[in-house]
Specification:
There is one protein chain. Helices cover 29% and strands 27% of the residues. The model has no long low-confidence stretch (mean pLDDT 94). It is built from nine helices and 15 strands. The chain has two domains: 177 residues, Medium-chain alcohol dehydrogenases, catalytic domain (Quinone Oxidoreductase, Chain A, domain 1, Alpha-Beta Complex); 123 residues, Rossmann fold (3-Layer(aba) Sandwich). It is of the alpha/beta class. Keywords: NADP, Oxidoreductase. It comes from Roseovarius indicus.
């Protein structure tokens, strides 16, 4: 019988329990995978703590994995058993040795992409594709701000935006992370603990501000991100690592006719008209070397709690994966 991480109560990392579970059988439209690598993401932390009440308890968390197809459910014609695939799913269930996933959400992985790279890059790469196209279409004339520029998504957004010709301003928390952001091609790197990032952005842009700010930090940076926007600028808040953003007056957006978006990647993947192009963009970006995630920490599945503690420390520059 396979093992999995089971969450029975929202709360601290030690609530993630490694135990034997029943072998899952694929239903209509599903595949069963033998899992080879699992992406551990900050989304999983939100779910574990109860900030996101989107996992029915008891349940198996996890939204990203790589594995080999073992069995097809009713009505599924492919990919064939033995195919290595990656999957991102909002239905959870990825912290396990054997998983059942929706067939429509799997993407066969090129041989050149390792299990670890695929597990570390599928969600982050799709998120970056969504941020740079659906949330705001970045091009050569765009000046953008990316918070947590040395993080998993931040690195990919920086490399990809530079390939599109954009000017990238990155905020990071340390000199070591600054070097990571610079290596990804950031034009300007701001050490936010040492300087006022709003003042520095205005200085860099000659007082104008940025066309789009990508903010996954949340509470600590949200107000400043709004202040960094140019007239008609866009704020894309796609995470809340520092805590949820408190309520604010919508009229504040009127200061520069600004717009605010809070996207969730699963809503985009649920739309076939968007999912196909996002998958194609991800594969193209992988082949171009834009999605080459740095695995900062790799742990056995049984140590999922330690992986969550590492994520919550916000000390890592790169991705965290679990190995079944």
């Amino acid at each position: 019988m396979p093992n999995a991480i089971v969450l029975r109560e929202f709360g601290p990392a030690e609530n993630l329990v490694f135990e034997e579970v029943a072998r899952p059988e694929p239903g209509p439209g599903q595949l069963r995978l033998r899992v080879s690598a699992i992406g551990a993401n900050y989304h999983d932390v939100y779910v574990r703590t109860g900030l996101y009440r989107t996992l029915d308890l008891p349940g198996v968390p996890g939204i990203e994995l790589v594995g080999v197809v073992e069995a097809l459910g009713e009505g599924v014609t492919g990919p064939a058993p033995g195919t290595r695939v990656a999957c991102v799913t909002g239905r959870y269930g990825c912290y396990t040795e054997e998983a059942v996933v929706p067939a429509e959400l799997v993407l066969p992985m090129p041989d050149a992409v390792s299990d670890e790279a695929a597990a570390a890059g599928m969600l982050k790469g799709l998120t970056a594709a969504m941020l740079l196209t659906e949330a705001y279409r970045v091009g050569a004339e765009t000046t953008l701000l990316i918070h947590a520029g040395a993080g998993g998504v931040g690195q990919i957004v920086t490399r990809w935006a530079k390939a599109l010709g954009a000017t990238v301003i990155s905020t990071v928390g340390s000199e070591a992370k600054a070097r990571v952001a610079q290596a990804c091609g950031a034009d300007h790197v701001i050490l936010y603990r040492e300087e006022d990032f709003v003042a520095r952005v205005k200085e860099i842009t000659g007082g104008r501000g940025v066309d789009v700010a990508y903010d996954s930090v949340g509470k600590d940076t949200f107000a400043g991100s709004l202040d960094c926007l140019a007239p008609l600028g866009h704020l894309v808040n796609f995470g809340q690592a520092s805590g949820p953003v408190p309520p604010f007056e919508v009229s504040r957006l009127a200061a520069g006719s600004h717009t605010l978006l809070r996207p969730i990647i699963f809503h985009y993947l649920a739309d076939p008209a968007r999912r196909g192009p996002l998958f194609e963009m991800l594969l193209g970006a992988m082949e171009a070397g834009l999605v080459t995630p740095d695995v900062a920490l790799s742990l056995p599945l049984s140590e999922a709690a330690e992986a969550h503690r590492a994520l919550e420390s916000r000390a890592l520059a790169g991705a965290v994966i679990l190995r079944p």
